[in-house]
């Protein structure tokens, strides 16, 4: 992903026939929007009247969560770039020669390694997103009630990022022949998705209770 590309430019690239950006990059962007929205909630909370009524422990939680979200804003932009790089690198493997039996063997081995490397980016993105949910939860509990719906939007966007990332893991997993490895990754993804679903439901319950 080009640095400082415009939103219009990114959408045009995404909608074009170019190989990248694609779904993995879009998933990372969705997570980045979630992180940015959560940062906004905290920035519109700190210094307000309700915030001043909180005890030092809660204020500390809010401040820490804001700093964490600001870091996530950077990390998730990096994931967009990593996804595009991983895809490009994997495509190069398919260009390896396959004229002789030895070349075919080497190529097949590299393709298997390539699938594993390619799924690492979306898997790590999904893992990172789970950590971000902790801060969205804090925003929904203690954030400015005038913008608590934005914490809800953040929770929804983050779940979309996680489910999209797991889908991209499964796309690559389909090409892997190591059944033990596949089983391990599938279990890990199921755990992440369940945890994400629980977080999203918990946060949205809080948000809806505050906007009634």
Q: Count the DSSP helices.
A: 7
How large is the share of residues in beta strands? under 5%
- Count of individual domains: 1
Low-confidence residue ranges: none
Largest sheet composition:
none
SSE topology string:
HHHHHHH
Tally of strands: 0
Mean pLDDT: 93
Kindly, what is the distance between the CA atoms of the first and last residues, rounded to a whole number of angstroms? 41 Å
Organism: Clostridium colicanis DSM 13634
Pfam families: FTCD_C
Enzyme class: hydrolase
Protein name: Methenyltetrahydrofolate cyclohydrolase
Overview of the molecule:
By secondary structure, the protein is mostly helical. The chain has one domain (20-211): Four Helix Bundle (Hemerythrin (Met), subunit A). It is 82% helix and 0% strand. It has 7 helices and no strands. Helix 2 (23-43) runs parallel beside helix 5. The protein is elongated, with a radius of gyration of 20 Å. The N and C termini lie far apart (41 Å). The mean pLDDT is 93. Residues 6-190 form the Cyclodeaminase/cyclohydrolase domain. Its EC number is 3.5.4.9. It holds the Pfam family FTCD_C. It is an enzyme of class 3 (hydrolase).
Care to give the gist of this entry?
The chain is mostly helical and 212 residues long. The protein has 7 helices and no strands.
